[in-house]
Amino acid sequence: MNKLKSLWQDVRGAAVIEIAIALPVLILFIYGIFQVGIAFQASAGMQNALGEGARYATLFPVKTDEEIRQRIKDRVFGTGIGTFSEPSVTTPDASLCTKCRLLAVTFTMTPNFLFFTGPPVTLTREKRVYTAS
What we know:
Blueprint: H1 2-9, H2 14-59, H3 65-75, E1 83-84, E2 88-90, E3 100-109, E4 121-130
């Protein structure tokens, strides 16, 4: 009975058990933060590309939609984990605005959390550009 009581009161090794329980959860949280960082980087890349496309369309008003689309495509950046859609350059209805174009880019990624994958995340950014012509 004394041996059983001494084993019950022995706390050596308790820290190892606590680490074994907490460490996988902590690793998943840290990895999840990296996945969110990838989405933020892609969002910043889309904003940069749309800004460059808007600047290009404003400074060079005779440029075609295809040239603006190519400028956006060249300037978008990210980590390469997700996929960027083909940029779109459209002319909205004349009742909404005259002499403007709508630029848009979409980024899609499926977060990977080591042991399982999350649902697909889609980010869309748009920018309206007013041109001289």
